[in-house]
Specification:
- Chain A: Its EC number is 2.7.13.3.
- Chain A: The chain crosses the membrane at residues 162-184.
- Chain A: It is an enzyme of class 2 (transferase).
- Chain A: Pfam families: HATPase_c, HisKA.
- Chain A: Keywords: Kinase, Membrane, Phosphoprotein, Transferase, Transmembrane, Transmembrane helix, Two-component regulatory system.
- The complex is a heterodimer of chains A (460) and B (225).
- Chain A is α+β, with helices and mostly antiparallel strands and 460 residues long.
- Chain A folds into three domains: 5-158, Beta-Lactamase (2-Layer Sandwich), CATH 3.30.450; 210-305, Orthogonal Bundle (Helix Hairpins), CATH 1.10.287; 309-459, Histidine kinase-like ATPase, C-terminal domain (Heat Shock Protein 90, 2-Layer Sandwich).
- Chain A contains nine helices and twelve strands.
- Chain A has helices at residues 7-10, 12-79, 153-203, 219-269, 273-305, 316-333, 351-368, 402-405, 424-434; strands at 86-91, 97-100, 113-121, 129-139, 145-151, 312-315, 337-341, 346-349, 374-382, 385-391, 438-443, 448-453.
- Chain A has a five-stranded antiparallel β-sheet. In chain A, strands 7-9-10-12-11 form a five-stranded mixed β-sheet. A two-stranded antiparallel ribbon of chain A has the order 6-8.
- In chain A, helix 2 packs antiparallel against helix 3 (153-203) and helix 3 (153-203) runs parallel beside helix 4.
- Residues 410-419 of chain A have low confidence and may be disordered.
- With 225 residues, chain B is an alpha/beta fold.
- Chain B is 42% helix and 22% strand.
- Chain B contains eight helices and twelve strands.
- Chain B has helices at residues 10-22, 33-42, 59-68, 84-92, 105-123, 154-165, 173-181, 191-203, and strands spanning 2-6, 26-30, 47-51, 75-79, 97-100, 128-131, 134-137, 142-145, 148-150, 170-172, 212-215, 219-222.
- The mean pLDDT of chain B is 86.
- The chains are: A alpha+beta (460), B alpha/beta (225).
- The interface between A and B is medium-sized, with 31 and 24 residues.
Chain lengths: 460, 225
């Protein structure tokens, strides 16, 4: 088995939290360090100014009163405790101490200028202690050395504080950042995990799987809505595919069985040439019906699969007029009248699909109309939206079956005896969907009333 | 006729070429676009049956190359799915007709005959078409048979014109709906049959022999009688 770290460590939530924490840590340390460096510089400058000042006054003392003068001044300073404690040492050119409060010349100070070192200090105000000294060494004209220094304990305190502040704030930032980052990342990742899980279940065949979409209106919600719509569309397509396959199999079985039976019968009866001819003709009719059905299925599949058809400006009233002219003779032969009321409507769409829609609706209406009745074709416009109505006086479709009639391969029982692939209304529905139109079936009392409601935007 | 069939699907090619040979046509078979183009350019054919989806070079590319070379051989395109957009693209590329699979062999034959005949027709820009005693004046839009004037609706006139232009050939119902109603599907039931039988009753007067015969399983044919 392959090694895999525990889920927690693989999760993007943890790595997200770690990144956030790291950024917080770096920022905090940077801020503290900058502040520390600035404060330390300020303190150092202040100490140096004090030391300079003191050294300068001693040097001028030396110039005025010589070696004994400066020694006296130093002795006096050392004896009187002051708030600002200075360190003094006057030494021979060889480094032997003459006067001051340092026991010996510090080995670290080997040339004139500023020095920083640590040493033990005796002072009036405090017991012996190790202290940091900021000092200036001066070489007097006759070779004697002068060292003036000041305790720079403040900078040590500062340094200590800096380090402890750094540790505490880093600790706090780290923990807080980790916690907050983990919480924040988890929120997004919980969604991703839910989406992945839902996707997995969907793939395994649970087609009604949907993502919860709490109505927060953020990006996660939008993504959830998109994924859900995709799932819905896939479910719908698979559903219609299933129904189509079942329906197709059913509708093909009948004529194929019939063809087979006829051929077998002809073989058994040793039919003569004329009888064989009749059998061939009958078989050919059935095969034509099968071919027609297959073409219809392909057409429907195409209409359902396309999201964006090539659109042209279609004069809907002309298209309907043509379709009516095509069906007029058929209607007359059947003793059915067609009453047409059209207003000019142009819309952007697929001429082919719209013609198919009109032809199918007319075909259905005429086929189901009893002799002597009239089929009504109306095209109206209201508020810029066109409505096509085709109504017949036939048996109609029961209210409970209307929904089903628009789906694929549902030849309703009432029309079972009538010819047709049963795809007529499905193709109408698919063509309507492509044009963002709605198909509404109502009772024509008696008969079927089919209304195709085109949206306003589709009407030019 | 000498025909060239460029089709990669073995079964379709078998079925089409066998049928064509049985009808007495010569048929060369090629299974890919590149060799197909070479064969089309290298030999003279009466018509080419060209599948749209071919290996190496697709059907439309073959057709464009052929037309770019100035070859005007009639081409009947075949495709798996006959939708308007495909159809328009095919005709625009220089195809003479378009047939969607699945198709019946009768349909294929009728269309082949139509496109090979059409060429002969195109050259005579006559304003009158005559078949036997039947005359169609395209300018005045008057139809007559043996001096008897026939009143026709607009669509009936177009229907008759189409049948007369394809005199002696079988014309299928789909060809008629495509040519006269510009529908790329066949309308249901027997609408076309009704139109044809009306036309028939108008052009055949009493005691006149019928000019339009129904060919079972295929379509119609208009003959001079």
């Amino acid at each position: 088995m392959r090694f895999s770290p525990p889920a927690l460590f693989r999760s993007a939530a943890l790595s997200g939290a770690l990144w956030i924490t790291l950024i917080a840590l770096v920022t905090t340390s940077l801020a503290l360090t900058v502040q520390y460096v600035q404060t330390a510089r300020l303190l150092e400058a202040r100490t140096r100014a004090l030391v300079n000042d003191e050294a300068a006054s001693l040097v001028s003392r030396y110039r005025a009163a010589g070696l004994s003068g400066i020694a006296q001044a130093i002795r006096r300073e050392v004896e009187v405790p002051r708030i600002n404690e200075f360190l003094y040492l006057l030494a021979t050119p060889g480094g032997r101490p003459l006067v001051g409060n340092l026991a010996e010349w510090p080995s670290a100070v080997d040339h004139p200028g500023y020095h920083r070192f640590e040493t033990e200090v005796f002072s009036a105000s405090a017991p012996v202690r190790e202290s940091a000294i900021e000092a200036r060494a001066v070489l007097l004209p006759d070779g004697f050395r002068l060292l003036v220094g000041n305790l720079s304990d403040e900078s040590i305190v500062l340094q200590d504080r800096y380090f402890s502040a750094l540790i505490w704030s880093l600790l706090a930032t780290g923990l807080l950042g980790l916690a907050l980052g983990f919480w924040y990342s988890r929120r997004g990742l919980a969604f991703l995990r839910a989406a992945s899980d839902a996707g997995e279940r969907f793939l395994r065949g649970k087609l009604d799987e949907r993502l919860p979409a709490p109505d927060r209106g953020d990006e996660y919600d939008r993504l959830a809505a998109t994924i859900n719509r995709t799932f819905e569309e896939i479910e719908r397509l698979i559903g219609s595919l299933r129904a189509a396959t079942d329906g197709l199999a059913h509708d093909l079985k009948t004529p194929i069985t019939r063809i087979r039976a006829r051929l077998e019968l002809a073989e058994m009866q040793q039919a003569d040439a004329e009888e064989l001819h009749a059998v061939i003709a009958e078989c050919r009719d059935d095969l034509d019906a099968i071919l027609r059905l297959i073409l219809d299925v392909l057409e429907l599949a195409h209409a359902e699969a396309i999201a964006d058809i090539p659109r042209e400006l279609v004069q809907l009233d002309h298209l309907l007029q043509e379709a009516v002219e095509l069906y007029q003779p058929l209607a007359e032969d059947r003793g059915v009248g067609i009453e047409v009321t059209l207003v000019p409507v142009a819309l952007a769409g697929s001429r082919s699909l719209l013609a198919r829609m009109a032809a199918n609706l007319l075909d259905n209406a005429i086929k189901h109309s009893p002799k002597g009745e009239t089929v009504r074709v109306d095209l109206t416009v209201q508020d810029g939206a066109a409505t096509l109505t085709i109504a017949d006086r036939g048996p109609g479709i029961a209210e409970t079956q209307r929904e089903r009639a628009l789906q694929r391969f549902t030849q309703l029982d009432a029309s079972r005896s009538q010819p047709g692939s049963g795809l007529g209304l499905s193709i109408v529905a698919a063509a309507a969907r492509v044009h963002n139109a709605q198909v509404v079936l109502t009772d024509n009392e008696p008969g079927l009333n089919v209304r195709v409601l085109f949206p306003e935007t589709e009407t030019a | 006729m000498k025909l060239l069939l460029i089709e990669d699907d073995e079964k379709t090619a078998d079925y089409v070429s066998r049928g064509l040979r049985e009808l007495g046509h010569a048929c060369d078979r090629i299974g890919n676009g590149v060799d197909g183009l070479a064969a089309a350019l290298g030999d003279v054919h009466d018509a080419i049956i060209l599948d749209r989806n071919l290996p190496q070079l697709d059907g439309l590319a073959v057709l464009r190359a052929l037309r770019a070379q100035g070859d005007r051989t009639p081409v009947l395109l075949l495709s798996a799915m006959g939708q308007v957009d495909d159809r328009v693209a095919g005709l625009r590329a220089g195809g003479d007709d378009y047939l969607a699979k699945p198709f019946s062999f009768q349909e294929l034959i009728a269309r082949l005959e139509a496109i090979t005949r059409r060429r002969a027709d195109d050259r005579t820009g006559n304003a009158q078409i005559r078949v036997g005693g039947l005359t169609l004046d395209l300018l005045s839009r008057i139809a007559s048979r043996g001096g008897r004037r026939i009143e026709l609706s607009n669509k009936e006139f177009q229907l008759l014109e189409y049948l007369m232009r394809h005199e002696g050939q079988v014309v299928t119902r789909t060809m008629l709906t495509e040519a006269i109603w510009d529908y790329d599907f066949s309308p249901g039931t027997n609408v076309i049959d009704v139109h044809v039988s009306r036309l028939r009753s108008k052009i055949d007067g009493e005691n006149e022999p019928g000019m339009i015969s129904t060919i079972r399983g295929a379509g119609y044919r208009l003959d001079a009688v």
